[in-house]
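Input record (one chain):
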Amino acid sequence: MKSVNQIHLSSSRFHRTAATTIVLTSVLLAWGGLSGAAMAAMEAPIEGEKGGPKDWPANPANHKVSIKRDATDAKQSAMITVAEAAQVSKEELIKAAKQDAIPQGDKVWWYEEKLGTRIPYAITGDAITYYSDIVTSHAKKAFKSYAMPSSRLDYQAGVLFHKEFKIDGKTFTNVNVVTLKLSFSANFTAEATSGLSFDKKRIVVLDAENKVAHISSDGPTEALIMML
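The corresponding structure, as predicted from the sequence alone:
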């Protein structure tokens, strides 16, 4: 049987251990309660130290533009031009825009900006030129970032004739359907620790007179943001 002194000593050790456990738990909870921004600020490498931002010279190999308009003749080329020229109504842009005012102009195809880049509501000729100019400009620039900068534009357009074509609950006969597809990415170019990418599609139905009968797939675009 333990003596009174032994029991008292064991009790003291128990209370000290419990107190230490409570303090350690409180510290861990406080650490876990820090915001993501605070944690990122503590973990971000300091410029000049190992793992910090690096100088990247201009490298055209990391910035590519691919634009393909598949047309069998001048008529199909004209159809693609019509599809790319179709504009978005201001009413649609107002509904999609999250800010108080939408971009001003007669040929507005975007509804917001992320990382300083316009996010498309629709693919138009002006949109293709905009993204092409961004990538071409990046190919000539030097950057300072935490990872290798890169950017890319892939665009493809094609035309198919349909005796009957169904889309969005509508049926069209004897129409030409122009499909536009665009993919864009820009990583560690606008900011040293982030990148952006998205895919966009547009389907334009043209009648026998080469006029726009219907447009599908215009709308807000899911732009993916990558953060280091």
